[in-house]
């Protein structure tokens, strides 16, 4: 059996709203991904360190604080500096349309606005990470959500 893909879900900056990130983390776990949730108020360096330490396939960022233009690209840079520039980065939150192009150019693969069906996020990750629906379903019993970025 193939090991489930690993996804880190993180809240960069001072944003204290984590309900959306937790909903996404649970949906990904239920879809067969192994999910590591870093918790609130993470720096870009902490997110990159956790991504490398956990050997993740993707990083999901959530921002409701308005600091996405600075923080999302900073996470991409930190991942590159840590030797993890190949990790897929996606994001979500309250992000104005005019900021989306800036973030996509900075290396964010895709942005999901509030209210996005979690199934859309799952489908995106399965497609981008090369995971079939059957593989995700069979791996769900082995998937886990961890709130510690340093389980290894």
Outline the secondary-structure elements.
Layout: E1 6-10, H1 19-30, E2 34-37, H2 44-53, E3 58-63, H3 68-81, E4 88-93, H4 97-105, E5 110-112, H5 118-129, H6 133-139, E6 145-146
Characterization of this structure:
This protein has one domain (6-146): Cobalamin-binding domain (Rossmann fold), CATH 3.40.50.280. The chain is built from 6 helices and 6 strands, in the order E-H-E-H-E-H-E-H-E-H-H-E. The chain starts with 5 loop residues before the first strand and ends in a 6-residue tail after the last strand. The protein has helices at 19-30, 44-53, 68-81, 97-105, 118-129, 133-139, and strands spanning 6-10, 34-37, 58-63, 88-93, 110-112, 145-146. Helix content is 42%, strand content 17%. Helix 2 (44-53) packs across helix 3. The protein has a 6-stranded parallel beta sheet with strand order 5-4-3-1-2-6, with helices on both faces. The protein is α/β, with parallel strands linked by helices and 152 residues long.
Throw out a few tags for this protein.
alpha/beta, 6 strands, 152 residues, 6-stranded parallel sheet, 17% strand, 6 helices, Rossmann fold
Instruction: Give the count of structural domains.
Output: 1
What is the CATH third-level topology name? Rossmann fold
Cα-atom radius of gyration:
14 Å
Number of DSSP strands?
A: 6
Task: State the shape.
Answer: globular
- Gap from first CA to last CA: 21 Å
CATH superfamily: Cobalamin-binding domain
Average of per-residue pLDDT values: 90
The structural class is alpha/beta
């Amino acid at each position: 059996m193939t090991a489930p893909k690993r996804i880190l879900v993180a809240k960069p900056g001072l944003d204290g709203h984590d309900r959306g990130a937790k909903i996404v983390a649970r949906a990904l776990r239920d879809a067969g991904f192994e999910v590591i949730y870093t918790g609130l108020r993470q720096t870009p360096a902490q997110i990159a360190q956790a991504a490398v330490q956990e050997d993740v396939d993707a990083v999901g960022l959530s921002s409701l604080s308005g600091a996405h233009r600075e923080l999302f690209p900073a996470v991409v840079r930190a991942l590159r500096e840590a030797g993890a520039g190949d990790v897929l980065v996606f994001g979500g939150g309250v992000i104005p349309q005019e900021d989306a192009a800036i973030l996509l150019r900075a290396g964010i693969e895709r942005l999901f606005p509030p209210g996005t069906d979690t199934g859309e996020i799952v489908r995106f990750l399965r497609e981008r990470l090369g995971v079939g629906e059957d593989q995700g379903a069979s791996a769900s019993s082995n998937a886990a959500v961890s709130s510690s970025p340093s389980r290894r």
